[in-house]
Amino acid sequence: MKIFLVFLEQREGIVKKASIDTWNLVQELAALYPDTSVSALLAGPADIRQLDGVLAGQGVVYHANEEAYRLCNPQHYTRLIADTMKRVGATTLFFADTALSRDLAPRLSVRLQASLLSGCTVDEAWWNGGACQRPIYSGAAIASFAPCCPLKIYTIIPHATRSFSSATTSGSRITFETLEPSLHTSEELFPQVRCIAMHKGVRDVAEATIVVAGGRGMGSAEGFALLEELARLLGGAVGASRPVVDEGWRPHAEQIGQTGKTVAPALYLACAISGTPQHLAAIGSAGTIVAINRDPHAPIFDVADYGIVGDVHLVLPKLIEELQEFLKKR
Ligand SMILES: Cc1cc2nc3c(=O)[nH]c(=O)nc-3n(C[C@H](O)[C@H](O)[C@H](O)COP(=O)(O)OP(=O)(O)OC[C@H]3O[C@@H](n4cnc5c(N)ncnc54)[C@H](O)[C@@H]3O)c2cc1C
Known about the structure:
The chain is an alpha/beta fold.
């Protein structure tokens, strides 16, 4: 009997879509093998009703519903996950590939003496034998890796395989079990982690369905006011290329690309972004791409569905004005 454990990452009590997609993907893999079951671990206070109708398949979600796990202390999360692996007899652990899992997975790999395959993409062919595929050189080539230890840990690139928005969740049979308060007392955990910067109400660019992203050509931090307004009107999130983050115009949490986040919005608006491979590597799953650039030969136009050749400082105010008019009439 193989047991897969999926780690469900929450922030402010909201389970990340990337984790839900990972669960649904693992369910599909498990369905290929009759002797495989899937469980999940959710750490920290969260309303489990948010998982109704979004988790496909069947399995148990173990919930460590302790205040002490609200924020991630890597040492204690590592211990909790390792304990849960042992408790359920899991042989394989799956994470969505996020900043958090990039911290936790190597710790767990050492602690459990497990093979770690990070940044994987997944399909059914992939699963045969537990090998994984991983895009390298900014997605220009695909490398295959095989695990060598009996215990395996995978981090799955969100959106890299396919979208599970239409995953079959009807008829799913998920049960929830609250984990007993662990050995690690709340008092022991509390003082060690604190949140120093979290902008409430700001959409995570990795989860947004509309992303308005700006590049170096926006010119300054102030230039992003236009993108913020556009994102507000569209109900989307602001994203940025790496030079923008390096300049300190926008926070790293908004960086899209090889060393930032992978996104899969229905609409991706690339403003004054040239479209280098390191940026494009992270927008391959976007639905419609609209690019605004004053250089008609910018590589972003090679991947864009719609392109506007022009200066963002002229085009964006017009776009905002039109959108405001449009929204007024609705
Ligand atoms: C290991 C490594 C990892 C990297 N990771 C990332 C990553 O995660 N994300 C990322 O984005 N990059 C990453 N990069 C950097 C990447 O190679 C590019 O340098 C970067 O993507 C370029 O950003 P940009 O398009 O904003 O800037 P530029 O390449 O400078 O492009 C600016 C564009 O704006 C246009 N423009 C200028 N002014 C205007 C205007 N007024 N109106 C309209 N258009 C205008 C220009 O024509 C140009 O096309 C990485 C590089 C390396 C080596």
